Amino acid sequence: MNTEITVNRAPRGWIFYDADCALCAGAAARLKRALNRRGFRLLPLQTPDAPERVGVTREALLNRVHLLPGDGRRLAGIDVFIEVARHLKWARPLVAAARWPAVLPLLRRGYDWIAAHRHCFGGTCRLTRLPLLVIFALAAWKGGKL
Questions:
Q1: How many domains does the chain have?
Q2: How far apart are CA 119 and CA 56, in angstroms?
Q3: Which residues touch 129 (CB under 8 Å, ≥6 apart)?
């Protein structure tokens, strides 16, 4: 006798990530089950209809992660991580930190810098020798320009 109950419901949101980025693809693989359980579905930015679905140009699409929640909003960059963190108990400190007036702009600048340099995290750049927290702090301090 099968006691498994399957609930067919619309996803909470679609997360578009860069499948060509080792950092992004690795994070997507590690978090896929947890995100699926919470109703988020992952799709590569390289999906043919992604620009139309997200509502941005192909160039803008490839600059950052995007989330299309079921409520019609469009989120990008660190705002995606903050929204998803609301649904992951262990990540809720990010939500709390983002509420502080000075923190959200720093998070945005840090994310933008990491996104612009994400292909360096595969071991091909000198930046990979620095701990990620140091890189993030430098990006925020320098306004995203190193």
A1: 2
A2: 22
A3: none
Report field, pTM of the whole predicted structure over 0.70? yes
The 3 state secondary structure assigned to 39-87 is CEEEEECCCCCHHHHHCCCHHHHCCCCEEEECCCCCEECHHHHHHHHCC
Q: Specify whether 46 is located in the same domain as 76.
A: yes
Residue-number span of the structural domain to which 51 is assigned: 1-95
Digit-by-digit pLDDT tens for the chain (146 residues) are 444 444 556 688 999 999 988 888 888 999 999 999 999 999 999 999 999 999 999 888 889 999 999 888 999 999 999 999 999 999 899 999 999 988 999 999 888 888 888 877 665 555 445 555 565 566 665 554 44
Amino acid code (one letter) for 73: R
Backbone angles phi, psi at 134, to 5 degrees: -65, -45
CATH number reported for the structural domain that contains residue 44 in this entry: 3.40.30
Q: Which of 56, 77, 57 is nearest to 65 (CA)?
A: 77
Claim to verify: residue 112 and residue 78 sit in the same structural domain: no
> Domain check: are 28 and 41 in the same one?
yes
